[in-house]
Write a structure and sequence with these properties.
The complex is a heterodimer.
Chain A lengths: L8 E7 L26 E5 L5 H5 L5 E7 H6 L3 E4 L8 E5 L4 H10 L1 E2 L5
Antiparallel strand pairs in A: 1-2, 1-3, 2-5, 3-6, 4-5
Chain B lengths: L5 E3 L20 H4 L4 E3 L7 H13 L16 H14 L6 E6 L5 E7 L2 E7 L5 E7 L2 E6 L5 H9 L1
Antiparallel strand pairs in B: 1-2, 3-4, 4-5, 5-6, 6-7
């Protein structure tokens, strides 16, 4: 497992087509950064261990948004590298991800200009 | 879009015939609150409201794991509750802004005006969660039934 550094970027997919869950101001919906009941962390990919092409999975359907690792820790969350056999970049953002925190994460996420 | 006229502090009962006039007060939360700022009625939905209905229809077709992260498909109950809320309350002077599904089958309607925002979640069990935000900080949390008045006031101040 890699230690996640403050300067690392964490990538999350957000659906942008049919229907679009990215708002007119360019920020994703808060619900795109919320946790399923049984999940123990928000799934993201560590930018430096993947490529945008791999991380986006389906570029016809998704766009990538990046969170700075330093930002998630500033909210009291913990970034944990959780590599999977088919995705060595897989990480979890763990902690108390309330509706309010989800909104902050969505607002702080920066769109990755890939593929356009 | 046909222009709309704001009617201030007019009880719903004085509001006259509208597209929702046939709904009982039981199913029309706005009718239970006797004063507020209402927009004048029209024979059709405003464009942004019509777009929300179209989006709700598309949400109904989303499969499980639509987000690639194992999200639940939007719940029919949540979709119906969201649709019902919009039908019964679109005339209120609320800044309807965005609509999206949640990962647990819920449906979220977002309101936004300047630095104020609200997220209204319709849950699969028929319950609602309302969160009011100022500068993206939580100002208030509660359910819809007890906080519709606060939701309206929040954006009108």
């Amino acid at each position: 497992m890699d230690a996640i550094k403050e300067e690392d970027l964490l990538l999350r997919r957000v659906q942008f087509l049919d229907p679009n869950f990215i708002k007119d101001d360019g920020t994703p919906s808060s619900s795109s950064f919320s946790l399923k009941k049984e999940e123990d962390g928000l799934m993201v990919d560590l930018d430096r261990l993947t490529t945008y092409r791999e991380a986006i999975q389906d570029r016809a359907k998704f766009r990538l948004f990046a969170l700075k690792a330093a930002y998630t820790t500033s909210l009291g969350l913990e970034n944990v590298h959780d590599p999977k056999q088919d995705n060595p970049a897989h990480c979890l953002i763990k902690g108390n991800i309330t509706r309010g925190v989800s909104r902050k994460l969505a607002k702080a996420a920066k769109r990755i200009p890939y593929p356009d | 879009m046909i222009s709309m006229q704001a009617l201030v502090n007019e009880p719903t009962a004085l509001y006259g015939q509208s597209t929702t006039a046939s709904f009982d007060a039981e199913f029309m939360p706005s009718a239970r609150y006797s004063s507020s700022i209402y927009l004048s009625n029209d024979s059709r939905f405003p464009d942004h409201i019509a777009a929300m209905f179209q989006k709700l229809n598309r949400l109904a077709a989303l499969p499980k794991a639509w987000d690639s992260y194992r999200a639940e498909a939007p719940s029919p109950v949540a979709l119906d509750e969201a649709r019902s809320f919009i039908i019964h309350n679109y005339m209120l002077d609320l800044p309807f802004y965005f609509l999206a599904p949640g990962v647990n089958g819920e449906v979220m309607i977002e309101f936004q005006k300047g630095t104020k925002a609200a997220e209204l979640y319709f849950l699969p069990d028929g319950q609602c969660e309302l969160i009011l935000f100022k500068d993206d900080e939580v100002e208030r949390e509660g359910d819809l039934e007890n906080n519709l008045r606060e939701l309206i006031d929040f954006f009108s101040k």
